[in-house]
Amino acid sequence: MAVTGTQNSLVGETTCGSLLHELQKIWDEVGESDEQRDKMLLQLEQECLEVYMRKVDQASKSRAILLQALADANSELSNLLQALGEKTYVGIPEKLTGTIKEQLAAIAPTLEQLWKQKDDRIKEFSDVQSQIKKISGEITGDVQVGTPTVDEDDLSLKKLEELQSQLHELQREKSDRLHKVLDFVSTVHDLCAVLGMDFFTTITEVHPSLTDSIGVQSKSISNDTLSNLAKTVSALKEDKMQRLQKIQELAAQLSDLWNLMDTPDEERSLFDHVTCNISASVDEVTVPGALALDLIEQAEVEVERLDQLKASKMKEIAFKRQTELEDIYARAHIEIDSESAREKILAQIDSGNVEPTDLLADMDNQILRAKEEAISRKDILEKVEKWMSACEEESWLEDYNRDENRYNSSRGAHINLKRAEKARVLVNKIPALVDTLVAKTRAWEDERGFSFMYDGVPLLAMLDEYAMLRHDREEEKRRLRDQKRFHEQLNTEQEAVFGSRPSPVRPLGPKKVVGPRAANGGGPTNGTPGRRLSMNTRSTSKDGRRDSNNHRLSAPVNYVAIAKEDAVSQVSGGSETVQSSP
């Protein structure tokens, strides 16, 4: 009962004093000595000290763990803010107060939010970097599979914006490349259509994704694809240019052969699809199949057939070329021996020693040289035309001035009067025109080393003779003026002696310088006869040029027209004057 009561009392009171009192009671009952009691109390005190020390150690360790947790939380908070590029955060208190646990409780929500924000930021980085990696692989042609590694130490918005900016640049480049690819594909399609080639086979050789069955966004935009597309387009354009040149050459040959053989339009129309591109540029040829190989082969076969047909019509073709050559020389007023040339052509064809193509090529060269010669003479011939026209007007003006009824009010008199005014202006320009013509002709002869022939006559000889006859005419006019003054003086003296004035003697008209056209044909003085100028013998040097030291040309008999009026015929009226051209 005593033990049970002691246990109950121990349960009821838990203080050290009550336990010590209870222990003393027990010792008194037992009869423990003081020495034993002190020993036991010392042992009890030692055990209590050890318990306290354990508890203190435990509490100290727990505090250290909490402090470490708080330090780790602060460090993690700092690292998160640094990784996210944030200097501050709204949920973080400016200064932590309270116990350690309170401080941990205050910082825990902020850490949770920052961890969540970090996870979201990592997803954004991963998504952007994945797109960058994908587009970069599409551009380089090295498509890599897998998730890129995100640098969790730098998740700042600045870094994210840089990556997004890089992504936007790559997206723009991808868009540009895709447009280039589509443009290249469209160009290849058009070129293949014009050249008659299979587009599907051609584009598949570049890259299988470029066919129409593949979506636009799935088409290859790599550097190799763009390079191969550019090479393909360049090769097709070169092929197009070569085929166009070939078909233009064939079209030109067909046209020449048709013109030579006077092929009817119905037969020519069969090859309109060939000749329609004879002068077209490369970019202008867009009709599908316009430069197909089978079309070129058809044109080659037709040219070969016409060449064989041309050989059988060689004489007709050669004489047609000869006629063209003669026409060029005739327009240039160059004399050639046409009959001998035609006989030579006929002999060459009959002998068979000359290839038809060589003969035609030689005649083409002759035509080319004749055209060049005509061009070199063009300026001088134009001035010869002006000179001859002026001489014709001069001849007409001479006849007009001799007409006594020119001022009568007859029909058409005013028209002749206007023509006379224009003719006088034109005649006054003849000396300067002749001087210019002489200078240009001499320069032409000095450059080429032979005389300038006009219908077989040296042009300078014609000009020299014209200048000589014009000089003779001026002398004749001066003589007539002196004769007129003499008769007027004689009439005045007779009037003073006899008191009456006899009718003056009509002087002879001056010699008339007829232009080269009138002198040539011997036709009417105011008409337009042939161009050949009759010339007397004129010595020339060995190289065909005129010799200025030899005798001058004498005018032909029909080159000067003498007035038919009687030198002693009388005219009424003392006021009549002799009309002459200025």
Automatic annotation (TrEMBL):
The keyword Phosphoprotein applies. One of its GO terms (cellular component) is nucleus. InterPro entries: MAP65_Ase1_PRC1 (IPR007145). Transmembrane segments: none annotated. GO terms for molecular function: microtubule binding. It comes from the Eukaryota. Residues 488-556 are annotated as: Disordered. Pfam families: MAP65_ASE1 (PF03999). It is found in: Cytoplasm; Nucleus. Residues 540-550 have a biased composition (Basic and acidic residues). GO terms for biological process: cytokinesis by cell plate formation; microtubule cytoskeleton organization. PANTHER family: FASCETTO-RELATED, PROTEIN REGULATOR OF CYTOKINESIS 1 PRC1-RELATED. Belongs to the MAP65/ASE1 family. This is 65-kDa microtubule-associated protein 1. The lineage of its organism: Eukaryota, Viridiplantae, Streptophyta, Embryophyta, Tracheophyta. The gene is MAP65-1.
